[in-house]
Amino acid sequence: MALRGVGGRGSGVGQSEPPPSSTFCPLPPAFANTRPRPPMKLSEFLEACETLGLLRMIVTSSAAVLEVRGSIEKLFYAELPKGHYANMHQEGFEFHLNMDRITQVKFETGEAKRGNFTTYAIRFVDDAGEPALSLFLQWGKPGEYAPGQVEAWHSLRDRYGEQWQPA
After folding, report:
1. May I ask the CATH class of domain 42-164?
2. Residue 79 CB neighbour total at 10 angstroms
3. What's the pLDDT score for residue 104?
4. Alpha-carbon distances, residue 117 vs 13, 84, 88, 114 (angstroms)
5. Per-domain residue ranges for the chain?
6. Under-70 pLDDT residues of the chain
7. 24 vs 47: CA distance, rounded Å
């Protein structure tokens, strides 16, 4: 029995005859030349988050929750024995994220706990499958985001995908 379609139609690799038309379904032209997305670095994504403006950054542990308002800006990086860290110093708080522990990034929308509006979040999931960091678009008045803020969130989601694994 001849292998069919291993090397692609007409390539001659592993194929002695074209597959029967009843089993062959070529990709539509729009998908024929698509390639898998190259792996993206978490540092590049964090820098792209500067476009989001004011955020509520939330870190949760088994015993506490810390929420701060700020924007992602002026990141710098350090390689330490525990991993590669993204760092940021702002008035009122410092931020240190062990990028080696982040295995997935997810974009999520939800319904606000207080009020009737959509929330926009980015979750950084650690190697234990738990959210290590959540970034929520921060509003002035409930549901009133800064001009361009929601569009920037959608743009990042479109660019990186609804969920992805950093390289």
Report:
1. alpha beta
2. 9
3. 96
4. 55, 37, 30, 9
5. 1-34, 42-164
6. 1-39
7. 44
